Amino acid sequence: MAPYPRSDKRPLVTVLGLSLLFLAGPSAMAWEQRNEVSFLRGPYNIEFFDRHNRSFRYSAAIHFAHAKQHDILQLTPLSHHEETDRESDAEFVHMLFNPPRTEPTMAYYGPYIARVAWQLYRAIDWTHMHHEQTYDILSDQSIPWQDKKQWTDRSVHYYLTQLDIPRSPAPLDVTMRRAGVMMKPYFTYFRNYYPQSNNFFYVAHWWHPAIYEAMMTGGNDREQETMVEQTNATMEREILKDRPQRMLLSREVMPRYSRLSPESANIFDNLHMLHGIAYDILAYEGWNLEQKQKELYRVIKAMSYQPGDEKLVRKFSLPHPDLDIRVYYDWMKGTEGDMNRIMKEMLEEMMPAMMPEGVKPGMKQQMMAQFRLKLTPGMQPGEKQGSLMDALKAIMPAMKMMPEAMEPGATPTKMIETMLRSWQKKYADMPDMEPMAMALEPSIPQALKKP
C-alpha cells in the first residue's frame, strides 16, 4: 500500500485532558459489569481475514479511528477544534494506508471513554463482530452461493439474541425517530466543527457497505477478488480525495446485500448513526461526563432491538438498485440523500408542536436554509453557531422546546410519538422490499468489466 503523508504532530489532546484520565469523572461513576460474548463458531470464521486481508486491515484502521475519536473529542477543548480536526484526520488517513494487522476493540484506542461509557463500546464492538461474521460468510467459497442467506440469517439471529445490546434490525427511518436527538443541544456539533474527521467516517460508511456489494456482484469465485480490489481502488483513488457530504445508507450503497439481509443492512445503518450521535455528545461542552453517559445510554437503548422491529426490516426502498459499486456516482457526493431526507421529514413532523401558532411568512424559508447548512459538514457562510436547535431558536425565538429535550438522558416522549405516528401513516403500508434471488451465482456482466 502506498504511504500517505502525515504531519509529525499527533492529534491535539491536552495535558489537562490526559490528567483527567487518571483523576476525574469515571472513577466516581457506578461500576459496570463487563460480561462479554464471543463470536459464533462456523466453517467461515476468519475467512475475510484470509481471503481479503487488505480489506480486513482497512476495516481495522477504520475501527482504530472510530475508537480514538471518542477520547479526542472528550479530552480536547472545542476551542481547538480546527487544529484537532486537521491532526486527527491526518492520523486516520495515515493509519488507513498503514493499517493494523489485527482488529482492535474500542477500548484499546479509546481507553478514557471505555471507563466512562462502557455500554457504548459494547454496542459498537458487538456490531463490529457482526460485520466480521457476515464478511466471513460471503468470503467463504466452501459455502455454496445459494446457502449464503441461510448462514447469514443464522449470524443475524445470534447477534440479536446472545447479547443484550444489539442494534435494531428496523430501518433508520424508525430508529432515528425513536432516538429523538434532533432537538437536543448537541446535535450536528461533530459534522459542523470537525468536518474533516466527520467526512473520513462518511468515507468509511461508504466503504463498509461497498465491500458487501462488491462480493454480491462478484460471487464466490475469483471475480469476488476482482470486485473487492477494484472497489478498494475507487476508495483510494476517488472517494478519499472527494469525500461524501452525508452518511450514505446501506440501501443506497449495497442494494443487493440489503435485499439478501435487510436485518444486517439496517443494523449497520443504526450503528453508523450511533457513531455520529456519540461524537456529537462528546464534542458538546454543555454537559459533564455523568450527564453525557446518561444521554449516550438513552440513545443506545432507543436504537437497540425492540420487540416488533423484525416486522419492519424490509420497509425501505432502493433508490439505486443496479449500481456498479466501483463507480463513484455524482449522487453519492452531495448532501441530498436518504439520511437527510429522513431528518427533513422529522423536522417537518416536529414543527407544528414547536410552533403551534404557525411559522411567519419567510421564516420557513430561513429555517430550511439553516437546516441545510447544519446538515452540511463544516461551518458555512451565514450559518448560525452551535447545534441545529441553536440555529432554529435564533430564527424562531418563540419556538417551544420540550423541557426534556434539554435534559441529558431525558426522552422527548411526545415528540417521538408524533414522529412515529407520522411514519406509520406515510410508510407502514409500503410493500416489503423483495428478497434477493440467490439460486444462481452472479458473474460480473461484460458491460461492467474494467481493464
Describe the structure in your own words.
By secondary structure, the chain is mainly α. It has helices spanning 15-23, 47-51, 53-75, 81-97, 106-109, 111-116, 118-139, 148-161, 172-179, 189-193, 195-218, 223-239, 250-253, 255-260, 262-283, 289-302, 338-354, 363-374, 388-395, 413-427. It contains 20 helices and no strands. The protein is globular. The protein starts with 14 loop residues before the first helix and ends in a 24-residue tail after the last helix.
Q: Which secondary-structure class do the elements indicate?
A: mainly alpha
- The parts where pLDDT drops under 50 for at least 5 residues are 1-25
Mean pLDDT score, rounded? 92
**Which overall shape is indicated by the principal axes computed on the Cα atoms?**
globular
Terminal residue distance: 20 Å
User: What percentage of residues falls in helices of 4 or more residues?
Assistant: 55-70%
What fraction of residues sit in β-strands? under 5%
Main β-sheet: number of strands, strand sense, barrel status?
Answer: none
Q: Number of DSSP helices?
A: 20
Q: What's the total number of strands?
A: 0
Radius of gyration: 21 Å
Which series of helices and strands comes N to C?
HHHHHHHHHHHHHHHHHHHH
Which descriptors apply to this entry?
20 helices, globular, disordered N terminus
